[in-house]
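Ticket #4471: structure export looks truncated?
Reporter: QA, pipeline team
Priority: medium

Steps to reproduce: submit the single chain below to the structure queue and open the exported record.
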Amino acid sequence: MTHWPEDVGILACEVYIPYLFVEQEKLETFDGVKGKYTIGLGQKRMGFCGDQEDINSLCLTVVQNLMDKQNIDPKDVGRMEVGTETIIDHSKSVKTVLMQLFEESGNTNIEGVDTTNACYGGTSALFNAVNWIESSSWDGRLAIVVIADIGVYAAGNARCTGGGGAIALVLGPNAPIVFDRGLKATHMMHAYDFYKPKLASEYPIVDSQLSVKSYLSALDKCYQAYGSKFSKFSGQENLFSLDCIDYMVFHTPYCKLIEKSIGRCMLNDFMNAGNNNTLMPQYSLLEKYRDFTLDKTFDDPLVFKEIERTSVQCSKSIYEAKTKPSTLLATNIGNMYTASLYGSLVSLLISMNSNDLIKKRVVLFSYGSGLASSMFSVTLCPNEKLLPKFHALIDSLKNIRVMLDCRKEVEPKKFVEILEIREKYHNACNYEPSCSSGDLFPGSFFLKRVDEKYRRYYGRNEVLMNGKEH
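Actual output as written to the record:
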């Protein structure tokens, strides 16, 4: 190709959420920690999967629903990547399982496999797909990025931060959500804040304090680097700050962390402003921390908490206007792991009047423990010729609120029993799931059985797939 494809970005999107959920208020009462999950973490409901669902079934469901709803010809897909940390096979990729959906079309010429690093895998898969479209390897076809996880924890303090779901994005040129070329910053380093060394278990090992510090420190690094690129990109003489952002969305382990993250960005703005911040009334409460550096704020846990509370207080109005609309799915489903960030973007799209989003820039912060992080941005419907596509994309997502309202509530005791079943039969062979395929949304794929050679077979709820197992 002799020129860049124009307006490369998201053409369409599909979301799958678990059918079962538990009320966080009931769960905290059951666990004897009243207020911890709702007030302390900012959560309302948590979606979860029974043993009839695994990462393959989630991805099969979201991709098939996407292709059905968007009338995508399987032959028009040239790349498909999966981002996930929910591993059920140490060799065979989820992407190869999804190729069953393309068998009838005869299209086996589809690049891409799985990408894994905690909650960052989906973002890496997304970057790979965008780079493919903007490279000499692109053959003019569409890319599909599948971003999915099942987030479960062992019994204890972290179990309330579970969740799950899947999101599929169709990428290509002339898109209504356009990636801002050149506006991307990345920070990676070695850390044991959240990791899964027990290969026979779904459960992670979590260092909660280190996890929060790692997340916010990565946010500092990405925010500073993105801001520097933004200033050069825009040619503005003024310093980059939250005032330059229309909306900001985050990877969301729990919603209270996102309030703290906006506060952290304001703290960055305060420190970047230097002596000029005396003219900015929004920073007045932060004046006592003028001599601090960002790294120094982590030294004393008590001082860190004080600065955090003050920053949240200073940034409250910005959070309400620019970030809170993006928390719908996180509040009602929980931590979708690698799909979380893109659930935040979808939440923003369906929580705002679409006319108010036109030509707005959305900054996204992606974080995966271990750690890998990036900050990048998209522009929503940057020109009028994309308006029909933009409204069509948002209209296609309106069923998400219906799905949230149609889910089945499970009492905490039953929730614990279901997770115990998942734990007991994780990676078992000669196994048929005990949870009902009826506890799924219509059209959902489910695990039918695992044979003696650990081969997995799938059915589709209330939809006949030519009588075949998958």
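Status: closed, not a bug. The export was complete when the record was re-opened. Leaving a note from the reviewer for reference: Confidence is low (pLDDT under 50) at residues 464-468.
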